[in-house]
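Memo to structure team: turn this sequence into structure tokens by end of day. - J.P.
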Amino acid sequence: MLGRVASASLRQTRKISTTAVARKDLVQDLYIREIKSYKPAPAVKDAHVGAVKDFAAPSAPKAPELPSNFAAELAAYDAANPDLADAPAAVATHAHADEGSVSGAPAFLAFLEADAEKPHHAEH
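Reply from structure team:
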């Protein structure tokens, strides 16, 4: 009995191993044959003419030039009175003047430091 089981398993093993070796992958063979037989078309000498622009080097930039009367313009700038720095403060004062409550940083800080009134609760 042991001999039959051993010979049956040996036959099954032979069948599986022999069929696996004999079996070929047809898709892989077709793919490899097609790749080997592929011949790319030769490239045309002027194929790039319509797709690529000719290179033209950009012109050299000009060096910046100082104005001829640079010293006079610099002196005029130094002598100018900066009026624009006061303009936003004047606009802000008009906006707070309508409210009538707090105007200026010291008044605002004094308002923040003042003790808040405690609400009075009615006893029931």
